[in-house]
Structures are given as structure tokens and as C-alpha cells.
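User: Some background: our group keeps a shared notebook of sequences we're curious about, and every so often someone picks one and asks for a predicted structure to add to the entry. Today it's my turn. The entry only has the sequence so far, pasted here. Could you supply the structure so I can complete it?
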Amino acid sequence: MSSDGLLPAERKVLDELGHLPLDFRAMWAISNVFRSGAALRRHLESTVLAADRLSWTAFTALWVLWIWGEMEAREFAGAVGISRPTATGVLSTLQARRYVRRRKAAKDGRVVLVSLTPSGRRKIQELFPRFNEEERRLASVLDPAEQEGLASMLRSLTRGVQAGIPAPSEAAGRR
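Assistant: Of course. Here's the predicted structure to add to the notebook entry:
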């Protein structure tokens, strides 16, 4: 396998594990999704979100409620991609900042509904254009066709994970 274009961490892995029968192409694909996602998250938190003292998760929470509107608290965690206990903490923080509100559902008092407050709506409406401008700037290292291709490939990975790609041993048993 050629090491042209590899990142230093990839070269180190190849130096240490290159003698093993591993699928390095798959490793690079998945590890670089994680690596780039983490780098992008850190960058956006330290630039666009820092002035508003928002974490990536808090920003995502505001965005989800802005796009989907009021939702049950139990659905909120899944939509944001966090655990229910983490969602409780994020909602408490955002509620203390008066960006979200929680209320009991009229038909079933056990159900908690979550929504943006007017202040929360103003915050995400003001913040998102700046966030998207930084997304545009960061994505500009790729031409438009590369951006579309990358988005398509990442959708395919997401759909595969969501569909529960069978493990190789399971797939072999089905043949």
C-alpha cells in the first residue's frame, strides 16, 4: 500500500501495523471521518460558538428545536445524538440561559415537551448564518463536486450504520 498523502498518524500506524493483514483502506476511511469530524467540531466551538459560550451539543440542541419545533424530551436526545441523561443536562443549561423551555404535555403529564423560547429562537437565527459561513469557508478546500461527493459518501456510511450492516461472520452465514 502506498503511503503517499497519508497523515503522520496514518504513517505511524502503517509503520507499526503494516505487517498485519488489516484493511488499511477501511481504517483510513473510518478514522478520517472521526478525525475530521473532531477537528471540525473543535474548530467551530473555538471560533463561531465561543463568543456565545455554546458547546457543539448545545448548538445542535438549539438547531434541532429550531428546525423540528417542539418535541418530546425523549425524542430530543435521539435527534441531537446524545444520551437521555446528557440531554437533561444540556436542556437544564439552555433553560437556565432562557433559550429553551420544558412543559408537561396536556394529555399525559408524564411526557415532557421541549421547545425554543423567543430568546432561543433569536439566538439560533442570529448564530446560524455565521456558523454556515464558517462551514462554507471550511468546505471551500473542496470544489463543489467534491463537496457533493463527500456528502453523498457520508450519507451512505450513515445509512449503512443505521441499517445495521451485518458483521462479516453474520453475512457469511447468510450466503
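Suggested note for the entry: The mean pLDDT is 92. The CA atoms of residues 112 and 124 lie 22 Å apart.
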